[in-house]
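quick one before i forget lol
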Amino acid sequence: MPARTPEDLRQQCLRLDGRGYKAYKALEGEYRFPDFTLFIDHVQGDPFATPSRVRIRVPQAVAGFPPDLWEHPSRRVAAEHFILEAVHRALPRWSRPRGTGHSGRYFVEPVGQAMLPRTAVRLGAFGVELRFALGLPAQGRRILGRVAAQMLLEELPSLVRAALLYPSLPAETLRQYADVAEDADFLRQRLEAMGLVAFVADGSLLPRRSGIDDRPLTQGIPFQSPPSLRVHVHLPRAGVVTGLGVPQGVTLIVGGGFHGKSTLLRALARGVYNHKPGDGRERVVTHPKAVKIRAEDGRSVAGVDISPFIRNLPLGRETTAFSTENASGSTSQAANIMEALEMGARVLLMDEDTTATNLMIRDRRMQALIAREKEPITPYIDRARQLYTEHGVSTVLVLGGSGDYLDVADTVIAMDTYRPVDVTQQAREVAARFPTGRVREAQGPIHRPRRVPLPESLNPRKGRKPVVVKAPSRETLHLGTQTIDLRAVEQLVETAQTRAIGLALVYAWERYMDGQRPLADIVAQVMADIEAQGLEVLCRTPYPTGDLAAFRDLELAAALNRLRTLRVLGTRSAGR
């Protein structure tokens, strides 16, 4: 259908006034305004249905964004984030109930503290495109054509002027976003060469306002690195920056309760993402393959080799291809570790508060009381060093209750009133002064699992619908008739990521799950396709959608691993 004019759109809205809601379908198509193009891609079936899908595309000759904001990938993502924030600031003046159901409201994907690649805004040489949804207005199921004309012909042009034109935006702040993102990605790519797994800049503000408010706690204490662990980094935009360099190997974060141990670990877990200026964590950068590990009672496990941690179960139950629909704390944590290893994790982040104690430590007294042959668990303390030497996997562990770990630590950081202190030397002296006498219990190498998922174990169908993917929250994913619980996948930060992961699972199932490819290879192929073609490759509609955000391969695999119907071929192990 050829593009139409704004006047065509006006006349069509007026003709539809008072008609039944389904007549709105006549609005679908492309409309050329003087400064932008409006695409009405999909019209909802009634006022209560999922809102209509709309795009606005402004050519770069009008939008005016300088090339240095969209030619560099890191800077482009930050600029898109900034534009989306501007849209959210502008919309409240227009988005309000005007009739039945969703009538009169605008729906743009929420934006948080992390600057993620998204589909809501696209910026490039072509210009800028905003993708969103709106509720075409009706009273009951009768079209309010004049209100629709006001929304489409008056409010949308005002939105373009307010948020999609470079001259309308605060240029200095926009460039700060781009600079911060470029610096963070630059540093993240160089951590390994520097012998580090993470960096926390001096002056960072780590505490959050609450468990449900990810904004910085303004009364928090600025981070200050200890001199012995302070490193200097030269960033492309910020120049020389100092901060704590967390070395490779086994690092303990110790200290009294409520002194900031878990706060630091949470910041490290989120350091796999770039954060916007003012967040406090914009220069907290963690290795991109860092994974937060925890116990997860009740999760399902499919054919995971947990034998490095649990073997010789009573009644001869096999653990080299362990499956259960209701894992215990220890078996779930062991599975989480081995699944992370399968996906090439390089850093394991753990907090003793959320781990299974019996998987973490077995002290000398317990070793004396319960003979080794009667204990199926090999504690993590006896595998941490081995994970690093055999697979290059570092550990960062928050600890307050077991000094036995001092024997295997390379670095020990004590948090004292939210300030880190390097106590590595003191820890070694304490370990020498008070030997634990415990016996190392680990035996044999740790093999990286290579499982092959069976395609018939993933079924996205529900009733007559061939594919059902819904993400009502960041923590919940509905796939077909199944619900995947992602509460323990703590490094997901937005619902848009969860939604994209659901679509990626279907994409993987349709294209790459053939009963022969290993899970890690399937995930790698999906991520390669996204890298080459963008998140749009996952879309199942004939038009692009604006409700997806980028995710890591580790979280995609984590979602698949928590699908309760997942079945795999016998575990195959691989060396390093």
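fyi The first strand starts at residue 29 and ends at 32.
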